[in-house]
Amino acid sequence: MNELLRNYFFVRLALPKFALLLIFTLISLSGCERQLTQAADSEMNFKQIPLQFIAALGEPDANSGTGAENWAIWPIDPGPRGVRLGSYDRLQAAGGVAPAGWRFDASDWWLEENGLIMEPPDLPVAPGSYMVTGDREVTTVLTVFPPDPSGAKRWELADGATLYDVTHLGCRSARYSPMPGSEAESCSPANAPQEAFRVSPGADMPPVNGCQKQDYAVLFLVAIES
Question: Which residues form the domain of 203?
């Protein structure tokens, strides 16, 4: 997803009903280049955190919904820790252990827009309030609610924002797993069409022979409720 983090500093929302959020962030990461200058209001107190990435599911035009129990988070930038598709044979030879130390799971693996196999994100996203942005026009608060008795988690965006508004279009991500009833080996990064990368901003990730695919929206997480 991202390969070089140059320079950033984060925001702190400290005053109820008065929180002019100015984020001057320059990130030049293969496929995820951005400069954020965004204002937002909040009645909560937020604290700055190192940049994180949320993998979210939902209709792009939705302002709220269920299913957040299936959302995930990369607490550190997975791009520089990724393995290129062309190096998959070396990953196999290393017993599935990437140079960065994470382990590849042939039954459940992630790919990003430049053709990098990524380490899996952490599941699930904990209940709480998060300041998120798509590096376009909107920075707002995402609330993930505690699970209901069935384990389902609701989510909601403030200020009438939609999931599309806070999706970073340049960062694409998808999760691949074998077709039902198939062996794990049938769904392999070796089958990925390398000519399909880099994926255009906003486009779906390419299918991979032998795999079922789930596309995820990528949200930049810049602050959390203190």
Answer: 53-221
